[in-house]
Specification:
The protein is mainly beta. It has one domain. It is built from one helix and seven strands, in the order βββββαββ. It has one helix spanning 58-65, and strands at residues 4-10, 20-24, 30-31, 36-41, 44-47, 69-74, 80-83. A seven-stranded mixed β-sheet has the order 3-2-1-6-7-4-5, with helices on one face.
C-alpha cells in the first residue's frame, strides 16, 4: 500500500469548537483520529485506539510535533495506519 502525506487540520466552521482531524494533502479526504487503528514505528505495528477530541494522545502529539504532518495508509474500510 502506498503511503500518502496527511496533515492535521481543523474541519470546524468559524465560531464552532475546534475539530481536529487528518486530511490527505492531495485529495483533501478527511480521516478522524478514531480511524487510526495502527501506529507503525520503524516497521513495528502497534494497535491503537484514539479518541477524536483528545489532542493529548501520544500518537497525535507526535504528529503535531512533526509540523502537523505524517504519512498514512488506509484500507477499504477507512482504517488508518500512521507511520513514524
Amino acid at each position: 500500500m502506498e503511503q500518502i502525506l496527511a496533515r492535521v487540520v481543523n474541519k470546524a466552521y468559524a465560531g464552532e469548537p475546534e475539530h481536529a482531524c487528518l486530511q490527505d494533502v492531495e485529495t483533501n479526504r478527511i480521516f478522524e483520529f478514531s480511524q487510526i487503528k495502527v501506529s507503525n514505528e520503524n516497521n513495528i505495528n502497534s494497535d491503537v485506539s484514539l479518541v477524536d477530541t483528545d489532542l493529548n494522545q501520544p500518537e497525535i502529539q507526535r504528529i503535531l510535533n512533526n509540523n502537523h504532518y505524517c504519512n498514512i495508509t488506509f484500507d477499504d474500510d477507512g482504517n488508518v495506519t500512521v507511520y513514524f
